[in-house]
Amino acid sequence: MKSRADFQKMKETGEAIAMITAYDYPSAKQAEKAGADMILVGDSLGMVVLGYDSTIPVTMEDMIHHTKAVKRGAPGTFIVTDMPFMSYHISKEDTLRNAAVLMQKAGSDAVKLEGADEVAGLIQALTKGGIPVVAHLGLTPQSVGVLGGYKVQGKTAEAAAKLLEDALQCQQAGAIALVLECVPRQLAALIQQQLSIPVIGIGAGAETAGQVLVYHDVTGYGVERVPKFVKQYGRADEEMQQALFQYVSDVKGRKFPSEQHTFTMNEDVLDGLYG
Ligand code: KIV
Ligand code: NA
């Protein structure tokens, strides 16, 4: 399994870090097989696998449950788990306790928190406690209500300067990497250059140390509309839906099961049963 030192070295040598989300055993298995360097058990699971319309309803129980499944599917891959909404804002004690559960019970190798300022203090406390933290800045979906929608961040001089300052704060606090979501590529490049830790972008251009995307967006599974920054590499939905249409149609048309999918027994035994 790759470690923090490997990710740091990748940034230094320019070898790109490939990160993808996974939420269950089969997706984690596929991600590991594909050679992903890091798997994110993102709280995006609330939207893509649980059907909520934001990440706000996601709980610690959800994150533990899904991280355990991902760990079983990808035992050899570095797993980052999102700390869900309000699991790190109530108190430092609460934050440490929740992060510890993810590390000890669920199998996370690191946790991810959105934000800087107060959150930087928490990054520091977690790091001191031996818990590796990935920071998350730019578009931070848990604050969508405060941000006023899913929009590109850091476009004004003031917002860009604040983002750079926040990124430095997170690094100073001990973050092992920074996920930067939905920012202009020029700003992402500047942050990547100013920071010594790897910046992993999503909608942040090509000049970051790595990229992260959501599994369902990449494979085209269960998503109707994807944001501009997503490249869909597959059409899983179409293939799966086709299979399901065919199955239902075969059952209704009595074409399934055929002999090939059917068990038989010795005729003598059967005669005995009929008497
Ligand atoms: O929850 C998630 O999937 C994320 C990524 C989009 C970075 O936080
Ligand atoms: Na997230």
Give the topology.
Elements: H1 4-13, E1 17-21, H2 25-34, E2 38-41, H3 45-48, H4 60-73, E3 78-82, H5 92-106, E4 110-114, H6 118-128, E5 133-138, H7 144-147, H8 157-173, E6 177-181, H9 185-194, E7 199-202, E8 210-213, H10 215-219, H11 236-252, H12 267-274
Parallel strand pairs: 1-2, 1-8, 2-3, 3-4, 4-5, 5-6, 6-7, 7-8
Helix pairs in contact: 2-4, 4-5, 6-8, 8-9
Sodium ion (NA) binds next to loops.
Write a concise synopsis of the structure shown.
The protein has 275 residues and is α/β, with parallel strands linked by helices. The protein contains 12 helices and 8 strands. It folds into 2 domains: 4-235, Phosphoenolpyruvate-binding domains (TIM Barrel, Alpha-Beta Barrel), CATH 3.20.20.60; 239-274, no CATH class.
